[in-house]
Specification:
The chain has 125 residues and is mainly α. It folds into two domains: 73 residues, Winged helix-like DNA-binding domain superfamily/Winged helix DNA-binding domain (Arc Repressor Mutant, subunit A, Orthogonal Bundle), CATH 1.10.10.10; 49 residues. Helix content is 74%, strand content 11%. The chain is built from five helices and three strands; from the N terminus they run ααβααββα. The chain has a three-stranded antiparallel sheet with strand order 1-3-2. Helix 1 runs antiparallel to helix 4. The radius of gyration is 26 Å and the shape is elongated.
């Protein structure tokens, strides 16, 4: 599977509000499937497991079995990959644009200040 296909899976997984909430719940610590089900009382166990399966396929959740329990761990690396591929470069470009704007405004302000000084000294003469 190509890197672009993997990113597509991550975007698809994160496009659903419930799956984002599951990731939020797993952010602090791994939870069993049963614990996750109690976090979402409006959903039945089958629906929670379906969402977990999508998150697993995207590489966002890693299940670890301990005896009869299944602990779900959040793997944030796919989110980091999205950040590096999409957010980081766009944020850098936006920051560079803001820096250029700041320099331009400061230069314009400095030029206006010099022009005002020139006018004042000319008016005095």
């Amino acid at each position: 599977m190509s890197n672009e296909d993997e990113l597509d899976h991550v975007f698809k997984a994160l496009a659903n509000r419930v799956r984002r909430e599951i990731c939020d719940a797993l952010k602090l610590r791994p939870l069993t499937t049963k614990q996750l089900c109690t976090c979402f009382p409006a959903l039945d166990r089958t629906t929670v497991m379906m969402h977990l399966r999508v998150l697993e396929e995207a590489g966002l959740v890693v299940p670890v079995r301990k005896g009869r329990e299944r602990f779900n761990h959040l793997d944030a690396m796919p989110i980091q990959a999205i950040h590096e591929r999409w957010i980081g470069p766009h944020a850098a470009a936006a920051a560079a644009g803001l820096h250029r704007l700041k320099l331009g405004l400061e230069a314009a302000e400095e030029g206006a200040g010099k022009q005002a000084e020139k006018k004042q000294s000319h008016d005095r003469a």
